[in-house]
């Protein structure tokens, strides 16, 4: 049976691994957390007014305006279930909002 000490050590190890994964994921992002946060804010506002036409149209426009390459960012968003503007907001924001809150 694992001692209390051993359990604590394992928990700390698991936590460090998760943090390391998150750090790697952030390093591999095609845009910064701050830019991602801005994208979510922009989608939030624009979708409320215009709704989603089942394409990543608003996201694509935003990326172009920011000087970011949609050909890099859109596939990355799709990997996380964001195939259109409303899905990007619903599926991708969920995974990142805690990190955005921490780092900005
Ligand atoms: Zn949609």
Question: What does it look like?
Answer:
- The protein is elongated.
- The longest helix is centred in the N-terminal third of the chain and has 24 residues, at 4-27.
- It has 104 residues and is mainly alpha-helical.
- It folds into two domains: 1-30; 31-103.
- 14% of the residues are buried.
- The mean pLDDT is 93.
- The protein has helices at 4-27, 33-50, 57-66, 70-79, 85-103.
- The structure holds zinc ion (ZN).
- Residues 52, 54, 84-87 line the site of zinc ion.
Uncertain segments? none
Radius of gyration: 17 Å
Number of helices: 5
User: How many distinct beta strands?
Assistant: 0
Structural class: mainly alpha
**Run of helices and strands:** HHHHH
CA-based shape: elongated
| Main sheet attributes: strand count, strand direction, barrel closure | none
**Which percent band covers the strand fraction?**
under 5%
Helix content: over 70%
What ligands can be seen in this structure?
Answer: zinc ion
Number of domains: 2
The chain-level mean pLDDT equals: 93
Distance between the termini: 42 Å
């Amino acid at each position: 049976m694992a001692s209390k000490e051993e359990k604590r050590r394992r928990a700390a190890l698991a936590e460090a691994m998760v943090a390391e994964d998150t750090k790697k994921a952030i390093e591999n992002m095609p845009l910064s957390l701050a830019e991602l946060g801005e994208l979510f804010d922009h989608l939030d506002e624009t979708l409320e007014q215009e709704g989603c036409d089942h394409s990543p149209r608003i996201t694509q426009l935003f990326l172009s305006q920011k000087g970011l390459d949609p050909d890099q960012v859109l596939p990355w968003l799709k990997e996380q279930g964001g195939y259109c503007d409303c899905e990007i907001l619903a599926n991708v924001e969920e995974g990142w909002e805690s990190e955005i809150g921490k780092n900005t």
